[in-house]
Prior knowledge:
CATH topology: Immunoglobulin-like
Family: Belongs to the NPC2 family.
Number of helices: 1
Signal peptide: 1-17
Protein name: MD-2-related lipid-recognition domain-containing protein
Distance between the termini: 45 Å
Number of domains: 1
Order of helices and strands: HEEEEEEEEE
Organism: Anopheles merus
Strand order of the largest sheet: 2-9-8-4-5
Helix content: 10-25%
CATH architecture: Sandwich
Mean pLDDT: 87
Structural class: mainly beta
Number of strands: 9
CATH class: Mainly Beta
Shape: globular
Strand content: 35-45%
InterPro entries: Ig_E-set, ML_dom, ML_Npc2-like
Amino acid sequence: MLKAVLFAVCLPSLIYGIAVRPCANNAPIPQEVRVVGCTAEPCTVQIGGLVDMDLDFVAPRATNGMRASLDIFLGTFRVPYDLPVEQQNACNFLEAGSCPLTPGEFVNYHLSTPAAAPFAGITVDLQLQLADDDGQALICFRSSARIVSG
């Protein structure tokens, strides 16, 4: 019975978690990344829709604040894009944990941002990073997204 209950509790994370890749800076990757409507790379992102994701990680060190950045790459070319200014303060989007962070603290960060792209029918790499007060990465990961028209 206990195994059945544990399986039922863990099943949603198995279904919605996607595999992600490390960034070139060798920062830790999150324990889990969940993207609404996506179970495997590349995720399909509709122009004009929302990219809605949660990620879980354990804070590797203390920091008073966190800055979020989302970079988009087409091959090695960085597509000009920045998260909206109001979404760059990652402390405002924590579902679990709070700033200042302490080492070993469990954190759940939620990002819901509009999907803007100049054209559809391409696959891009997305790189999401959360950095500490000194600009050093706390976590960073890459994943692929297929851009489709609305």
